[in-house]
Amino acid sequence: INTKLKQDLAKLMLANSITLTPGTFTLDIIDDSLLIHWISVKSTDREEATRRIGQRFEKYLIKIFG
Length: 66
Prior knowledge:
Distance between the termini: 20 Å
Number of helices: 2
């Protein structure tokens, strides 16, 4: 998935939040992308997967980290 977060700590918190969600596991963080293992795949489109997996956590992290 893609992220708008810029700080490494914010990306780490996003990765951990995703990993705590059942059926997902964050494997790697590369620049502005997170590599996610997703058991119950709903879409292979990167933008759709970003919306489904990361957006709900990212909106709070953007408020915290700016």
